[in-house]
Design goal:
Elements (H helix, E strand, L loop, with lengths): L2 H15 L6 H11 L8 E4 L5 H9 L4 E5 L10 E4 L5 H9 L4 E6 L9 H22 E12 L4 H11 E7 L10 E9 L8
Parallel strand pairs: 1-2, 1-4, 2-3, 4-5
Antiparallel strand pairs: 5-7, 6-7
GO molecular function: rRNA (uridine-2'-O-)-methyltransferase activity
Function: Specifically methylates the uridine in position 2552 of 23S rRNA at the 2'-O position of the ribose in the fully assembled 50S ribosomal subunit.
Protein name: Ribosomal RNA large subunit methyltransferase E
């Protein structure tokens, strides 16, 4: 069965089960496989619009859930949403004003695609690198990180950087990922914490 059938299946399922997009099933799959979120974790979702991952997160944890996106996010009950760029000091301060510590950072964001594969992949990797850098600023030691990216010539550099900062790093294609897509998730567990400058 082809990718169009899969796309329709997850799309229809999301509508039936009340999720804002089919991407919800990607996070549910990752959680089932890797158990990245515990019941009391505080979680920050970068690039959270339209909010399907926030819906899943709210069901997985009783901790605080914060969603950040350049675009407005329709309210999700029990979730803090922030409109803005997570790479700016202003938005980073707003995030930390809501939470004393962060256990998990997730990022399912994609840049606007041009259709030019190498250019789009470079921009996607750059966005993933920014998410990783920010996660390493706010995560507690032992925390977890998940980021979407696209496999290609710069993917290994991103993967290596994740391995420098987390004890366990896996690459995973979810069941809801469309067939033929180069999309992959880096699932990084057990943040090492800040390293000495001499490392």
């Amino acid at each position: 069965m082809g990718s169009q059938w899969d796309a329709d299946r997850f799309y229809k399922k999301s509508k039936r089960e009340g999720y804002r997009s089919r991407a919800a099933y990607k996070l549910l799959d990752i959680q089932k496989r890797f158990e990245i979120i515990r019941s009391d974790d505080n979680v920050v979702d970068l690039g959270a619009a339209p909010g399907s991952w926030l819906q899943v997160l709210r069901d997985l944890t009783d901790g605080k859930v914060i969603g950040v996106d350049l675009n407005p996010i329709a309210p999700v009950e029990g979730v803090i949403t922030i409109k803005g760029d997570f790479t700016t000091e202003k938005i980073q301060s707003r995030i930390l004003s809501h939470v004393d510590f962060v256990n998990v950072v997730v990022c399912d964001a994609s840049p606007k695609l041009s259709g030019q594969k190498s250019y789009d992949q470079a921009r996607a990797i750059a966005l993933s690198e920014l998410a990783l850098k920010y996660a390493c600023l706010i995560l507690k030691p032992g925390g977890n990180f998940v980021v979407k990216s696209f496999q290609g010539e710069m993917f290994k550099e991103l993967l290596d950087e994740a391995r420098r900062n987390f004890y366990s790093v896996k690459v995973y294609r979810t069941k809801a990922t469309r067939r033929g897509s180069s999309e992959a998730y880096i699932v990084a567990k057990n943040f090492r914490g800040f390293r000495d400058a001499s490392d």
